Structure formats: C-alpha cells, structure tokens
What does this fold into?
Amino acid sequence: MPALPQGGPDLSNGVVFEDLPTNTYYIDPVSRRVRGMDGGLPAMRQAVEIALSVARFRWGIYSANFGVDFSGIVGMEAGYAAAVLLERIREALRADSRVLGVEDYRYRISGDFLTASLTVRTVFGDVPQTVEVRAN
It folds into this structure.
C-alpha cells in the first residue's frame, strides 16, 4: 500500500490564472450605509478610498500590508514630505493588481496640512483621490 497519493492534476497544458470578480459590499457615500453589492469601477473607487484613508500599522483589524504609512511625515520639509507621501501612496496601492499606476500628483501646503490630489489608474477606469496628512 503506497504512503503517498498516486497521480495528481494534469499540468501538461499549463496553468491558467483567472482573476476573481471584484464584487464587494457597496457603501453609499451619502448615507454611509451598505446598499447591496457592486463591482467594477464603483468597487474600485471604494477600495482606493479605503486603502488611502487607513494608517498602516495602526489598526489591528488590517494586515501590516494594508494602508498608507503616514509616520515620520510630520516635520519634514514640504517638498520632501510630498515626495515621501507619493511613494507611500504608490506602495499602498501596489498590492492591488487592479491598480495600474498613480498619475497627476499635485500637492499644496495649507497651514499644518499637506493635501495631495492624484489620479489612480485602474483596469476599470480612473479614480480621482485626495489625501490629506498633517505635515507640521
């Protein structure tokens, strides 16, 4: 009697990787209530918004690979802080295979806050986004 199973999957024709649907619970931005399921661009818009509003390493409910690392930006020179923030935004979105890149990055300093506006290019379309972080 063999100790290991005999045979296995037939991989002679290669392996086909298939993306799963991106359906998720849709949260109405006005009422802040779940309004059913959605996919495509609305789901992507929501995923980008959540990923860029969560502080990485801060909340135990999210893995250490989720969110933006906002630490250390306070006190940096404005231009340097803007460059660091852009790289951290890219890093936060890199984990999502539906994101193609970040473009049209602009920033402004107003008082103690650095406000960045950008466009996230996704397989479903463009998602405009704004991120605000305390810089001073």
Notes: The beta strands are 24-27, 34-38, 99-110, 113-122, 125-134. The CA atoms of residues 52 and 92 lie 7 Å apart. The chain has a mean pLDDT of 86.
